[in-house]
Amino acid sequence: QVQFEESGGGLVQPGGSLRLSCAASGSIISFGAMGWYRQAPGKQRELVAAITRDGTTSYVDSVKGRFGISRDNANNMVYLQMNSLKPGDTAVYYCKNTGAGGNWGQGTQVTVSS
What we know:
The chain is an all-beta fold. 0% of the residues lie in helices and 46% in strands. The chain contains no helices and 10 strands. The protein starts with a strand and ends with a strand.
């Protein structure tokens, strides 16, 4: 099965930016839509951004206008550009296909704090 490896997280001050990367071990075209999820301490994992095979994007209201998802089908990569970060964005971020199947990776920790 295809594995996903997330990277690019870290500690950033409020208002800062980070770019997360997700490398898939196989073709992401076969999955169709890909998504970035996050899980904050004590909360359920939520889908924050998704992108279809042809590039149509969607976002949860709390990140609209601040986050941008993109994909590189040729290289099996998915990215999440995060701007104007807030403390409420602190979470472990994961990428995975939005449909059935696929395996969760280890995620990458994003901490927004002054």
